[in-house]
Design goal:
The complex is a heterodimer of chains A (about 260) and B (about 325). Chain A is mainly α. Chain A has helices at about 10-35, 45-70, 75-85, 95, 100-125, 130-155, 160-180, 190-195, 200-215, 240-250. Chain A has one domain (about 10-255): Ferritin, core subunit, four-helix bundle (Ferritin, Up-down Bundle), CATH 1.20.1260. Chain A has ten helices and no strands. Chain B is mainly α and about 325 residues long. The chains are: A mainly alpha (about 260), B mainly alpha (about 325).
Chain lengths: ~260, ~325
Amino acid sequence: MSQQTIEQLKPQVKTAIVDLLYRLADDHLILGHRNSEWTGLGPILEADIAFSSMAQDKMGHALAFYRLLQQLGEPDPDTNAFLRSGDQYRCCSLVCLERGDWAQSVVRHFLFDEATRIRFEALEQSRYEPLAQVARKLRGELKYHTMHGQMNLDKLGDATEESHQRMQDALDRLFPHAMGVFEPTEWDETLAAEGIQPREAELCKTWRSQVADMCAESGLTMPDDVGPIYGGRAGKHPEDLKKLLDDMQKVYRLDPDSEW
Amino acid sequence: MVYPMQEMPLNDKQGDPGYEENLAAFEARVARGDKVEPGDWMPNDYRQQLIRLIHVHANSEICGALPEGGWIPHAPGFKRKLALVSKVQDEVGHAQLLYRAAETLGKPREEMVEELISGKSKYSNVFHYHAETWADVAVIAWLIDAAAIVNQKMMAEGSYGPYSRALKRICYEEAFHLTHGYDMCISLATGSKLQRDMLQDAINRWWKPIMMFHGPSDKESKHTEVLMRWRIKLKSNDAQRQEFLKKYVPKMFNLGLTIPEEWEFRYDEATKEWRYNEPDWDEFLNVVRGNGPASALRLRTRKLAHEEGAWVREALAAAAAGEHVPVPVEMN
């Protein structure tokens, strides 16, 4: 089967791709924003610098997805990010949750980036070529994110009683939200049938088994009897997102027609 | 590598019988423009002055990250958001480089951080003020970074090798910040009335701290003479201030910005220098002693960040030492 270009897309497939791209773009923007809340306040200077750097990468990756949306006739990246309301956002609840302590941020970073790694590996084979290209292009940066996530899990997972407890608590708290990254949507079948992305449940299964092994190696126990928290992909978000968007959009909205 | 202070030779008149001779050789080296390296003979006063300066400089970078960092969540648009995170990240990186340079003189980072939090050591006057609007972020990135570059370019030619090398790298990055700050100011100055007013209001509030940035006038500065002889510092505070004003006041005027009238700014054609009403240096001293509008908030924020990060530093130290919490039996 040949790869699909924008001109060849059937309307239903295009709608499915747009929906997928919004999920990807919004997840990356909101997580990047959350991680940048550590800039200048990290537990050590080196950790602060690393987190800021990854926050920029995440925002940059979001921008790449918003640009793909723009190519499909959606608004430009700034309008999309800075003028949409919460119920128009399609991010999962994991990225919306407040920054929390370092354990919450590091565990979220680990869970999300492992999910992203597995998804991007699949997207590199996507028959929607513009998306496959972006996935291949971001592979290099993402590799450092997953290395950083795994290293932190490894170091903090069982170093001291307190670090172990904080990391396990964060894992228990965040895991249902992390499963929500793979919330199925009405477009699952279309995307899978068209070879654009595997079904969410399939990606989730791979992620779960790999994450369980990594947690065990770090002295942590992945919760195995909890259900996912869904809603984000349908625009239903925790309260935390409203506060975040109010903060993020407040200057831009003062004068949306001007260049800042 | 950290050099513990107690292992540093006490090179003063009491501690070193050959002090006068060594001092003469040291001063001759410095006068030739040689760089002094960590293991070299140096007068105790030189070591202490450098520690003080580098420590204050590092503190200023880490405290400087706060007023701007507070605006990262509000940055309008992808371009500004990405640039601001990157800039503040650079400032944190500069703090790391500078604490490292100070460590080569015998003062551990942890001790310097503790002294900052307890209010024992100082940081730049400009970071004792609140960043109230987005335009403040633009003014800080343009004019305060510009003023800092004048100072740091000069210090980069100084005699202490590790500090000089750190500053060269810092100046390189600061040049990007300046461009980013200028670009923000241009957008605001050429934007809507709301944006233009916001920018002028920021200038009005920041002009006093900016005028004080290079420190007390030469008539009042107590450290300058010895610092210049040892080539720690190569220009006086007033000379640095003039250099900054000569380059940036015309650029401000070109953007249609004005300097608040009470300064009575005027250009003296005869001396080719700017004249102005002298800042209140008692007020400056009061601010850097921790009595500025945002001083208490800055230290409270840094203290909280430091305390909240304590468990991470302990865990990382334990992990580095190969320690693991024993896994409970039922988990095996």
